[in-house]
Amino acid sequence: MVPIEHIMVFTGALFSIGVYGVMARRNAVLVLMAIELMLNAVAINLVAFGTLVYPGQINGMVFAIFVVTIAAAELGLGLAIVLRVYRMRSSINVDDINLMRW
Amino acid sequence: MDYAWLAPVLPISAFALNVLIWRQMGARKHALSALTTLAAIGGAFLVFLAVFSDASAHLEETATSSGRHLIFEGTPWFTVGVSPHLYVFAPTLVVDWLSIMMLGVVTFLAFLIEFYATGYMKGDSRYWWFFSVKALFTAAMLGVVLSYNFLLMYICWELVGLCSFLLIGFWYSERTNAEAAKKAFITTRVGDVGFFIGLALLFLKTRTFDMKETFAAVESGAIDPATVTIAGILIFLGAMGKSGQFPLHVWLPDAMAGPTPVSALVHSATMVAAGVYLVGRAYPIFHASSTTMAVITTVGTITAIFAATIALTQRDIKRILAYSTISQLGYMIMALGVGAYTAGLFHLFTHAFFKALLFLGAGSVIHSMEPVLHGTGRNPNDIFNMGGLRKQMPVTFWTFLIASLSLAGIAPLAGFWSKDAILVGAYEADAWLPLVVALVTAFLTAFYMFRCIYLVFFGPARWQVATSTGDHHDNHSTNHDIGHHAVPHESPWTMALPLVLICVPAIAAGWIGIPGFSEGFAETVRFGPMIEEHINLVLAGAGTLAGVLGIGLATLMYLTPVSGPRLISESFPAVYKTLYNKYYVDEMYQWIIDHVVLAIAAMAATVDRKILNDRIVDWCGPFLQGAGARVRLTTSGYIYHYAFGFIIGIMAIGVVMSGGIPDMRFALW
Questions:
Q1: Residue B279 contacts residue B364 (beta carbons within 8 Å)
Q2: For a 10 Å CB count at each end of chain B, is N or C smaller?
Q3: B638 touches chain A (CB under 8 A)
Q4: pTM here?
């Protein structure tokens, strides 16, 4: 069995890459992809800890399935928004989408 | 006996009926209001008669020092305080000889004065309102008299003050009347604040407003003496305000601005009697402290002589009577102060009758002088505009004369017995200064009353000068009766009848207090064990002599037209002016208000405007605007700025929930 520490290092790295992607990328599609990375890190953590704490049960996996489902829905919504923004402003650069301010 | 509560409830119901229902009745409201009020006060008088006849059989002897009484607990009104110190307020009433006496005085005089007012106020456009307020006034006074709970008494006490304000300022379209009403209200408020603080002080110690429990606590020594003294003096301040004691007497002469029936009621049975009654009712609190008693004696003594000297020089007939009232109230307060409890309240009892009679007589005189002097610009209240009226107004003259003799303390009229009781009380308390002052005041009283009588009813008819020189062109169409018979005439029977009826107690009210004659007053209205009263012939003689000397001097100076009075006033102009201007007390207050109160007010206004407003309030808006302008820069609109804040926040929550960075560990294993 893979030690839990390994999994934590892996998911931590994955999550951090996602955070970096959200912060650093200008392209809205890439930002959405980075969000997917963070969600996947969480899903892996759920499976790992679920197996560790409740051996032989599937609680963690069920949660992971939910996360994947919601991620898919969210991505669909996000891409639809990106598409609308592109139609309006001919750009999907998040620097150009700064209307949410004073 | 348990129907005593009807006495205040009847008039207050009349008030409600008048202002809620009769008011809608158009022109009929005047007659309806007057009838309702008269009926209600008449009913209250019947209640008094019933209570009085039942009293001897039903009053219970109790351990307390205030004699036999019955207490009625009412339904609780409200509860205040938190759990261990709950106080349930219930309107408690007391029937003892003191309250029965006042019940009789108030209802009897209020009824006759009301009856008199039906004639005196005839034609006034707010006739119905006059009678409505009178009903409320009577109810409030009966409430003060019957209540055995300080809070209930205070409520009624303030109602009395309110009604006196409404009645003194009844003709408020004239500025002086409105100001007199305001002055009466504010001046008595000064005393009432003291009263209220005194009550609060006692409440803090006893956790009750019930008089029985409060008196028991005071008498058993459960409250420390210092508190009793301070609370006593503060409560006495309330009595000073209502009873016009120096230096809170200034409102009382100005209260003459009201219609004369109001003056008669305010200065005999209600308002001013409330103060003396309070001293009598709360006597255990005052009696427990010799300091308080000394204060009461001092205030009463000063007031008695102070007001009597002012009355010597006044020209307005109602003002003379007003200062006489202040002086006599000082007498009562002084008697209560030296411990002559029965004597002081006895004087309250007799004084109510003859002073009401004097005021109604004065009202009758003014009523007849008004048409005579109308349009001449001369004051119908000024006794130097009267004279020789005894031929025109025989009923008024004789009743006024009897009341004056009674006030001057001439045997066997009512005033003699009560004045004598006070002299004996002061003598037995070894209070020499009050005794001397009382005798001097008796002399002055007789003098100024007969000065008034000689100027009003004897001598040349000075009002005739007014009609002969009076300009008939000024009042040709409005008052044609002036031209025809510009002579004072006797008042209508509705005004004359009460004069005659009040005359009876003004003569005879004192007889129930004749020492050795009956159980009467000394047995019933008393504090502590009954004192065997005995007549002191020397004092009685001295008192009568003072009165006779006063009358004699007045006869010498005013009956025959000699220049004596003018000679005296011109020989001592400073003394005359000081007295005529009432020792400049009003001017002193005005100076204090102008230079102290207004200066403090101006300072407070400066602090308010320059510091509170300009520096603090005005600073709030710009400060928040500036702060907002800076804070809003943090909302940049860039998603990654928000995401950064979001992640930092998540991390902070994680750090806090895992118990801080050094101990970061996974609690699951």
A1: no
A2: C
A3: yes
A4: 0.75
Q: How many residues does chain B have?
A: 669
Encode pLDDT of B70-116 as tens digits.
Answer: 778 878 888 887 777 788 888 888 888 888 888 888 998 888 888 88
A45 lies in some domain:
yes
CB contact under 8 A, A97 and B644: no
Q: What angle do CA B425, B428, B429 make, to 5 degrees?
A: 85
- Is B668 part of the contact surface with chain A (CB cutoff 8 Å)? yes
Q: How many CB atoms lie within 10 A of CB A101?
A: 13
How wide is the angle at C-alpha A26 spanned by C-alphas A22 and A28, nearest 5°? 75
> How is residue B546 written in tokens?
């003072």
- ipTM of the complex as predicted: 0.77
CA angle B629, B631, B632 (to 5 degrees): 70
B625 touches chain A (CB under 8 A): no
At B429-461, the pLDDT tens digits run 887 888 888 888 888 888 888 888 888 888 777
Give which of B632, B640, B646, B665 to mutate to test A binding, by max A Cβ within 10 Å: B640
Q: What is the CATH number of the domain that holds A83?
A: 1.10.287.3510
Helix (H) or strand (E) holding B242: helix B225-242
A55 domain residue, yes or no: yes
Q: Do A98 and B638 touch (CB under 8 A)?
A: yes
Which pair of tokens denotes residue A18? 């996602």
- Residue A96 belongs to a domain: no
Average pLDDT over residues A7-11: 93
Q: In this complex, is the C-beta atom of A3 within 8 Å of any C-beta atom belonging to chain B?
A: no
Domain assignment present for residue A97? The answer is: no
Q: From B648, which residue of chain A is nearest by alpha-carbon distance?
A: A19
* Number of domains making up chain A: 1
Q: What percent of chain B has pLDDT over 70?
A: 88
